[in-house]
Amino acid sequence: MSLPITAFYASLLGLCYLYLSLAVIAIRRKAQIGIGDGGNHDLMRISRVHANFNEYVPITLIMLACLESISHWDGVMHLGANALLFGRVLHAYGLRHHDGASWQRFVGMIMTFLSMLILAATNLFELHFLVV
């Protein structure tokens, strides 16, 4: 079974994750902190950006792969995956560059949640017709 839509977006999101990982490493090296955050504000912030990305992307990519395996709703898959990609990029930017709330964090989370909702609802819709 081929999952080209999932492969494309997983690859783009993987590159984003790699960038965030390298950003964490750069701050760790600069601050000479091997474990934990050492109370370093920049390291705490970028570690949270990295962790937040890791909290939402895997489950959403799983839902994308599931949908791609059971349906041909390419437009819906691209809509959900684009919302995830741009939502995570916006959220990471907002969290990295602003203390507290920012429009980037807000819009990024809304886009992430919409992505999850679209993919979950479409999966459930498709599964209903597979079972019936």
UniProtKB/TrEMBL annotation:
It holds the Pfam family MAPEG. The chain crosses the membrane at residues 6-27, 106-125. Keywords: Membrane, Transmembrane, Transmembrane helix. It is found in: Membrane. Gene3D superfamilies: Membrane associated eicosanoid/glutathione metabolism-like domain. InterPro entries: MAPEG-like_dom_sf, Membr-assoc_MAPEG. PANTHER family: GLUTATHIONE S-TRANSFERASE-RELATED (PTHR35814:SF1), PTHR35814. This is MAPEG family protein. The lineage of its organism: Bacteria, Pseudomonadati, Pseudomonadota, Gammaproteobacteria, Alteromonadales.
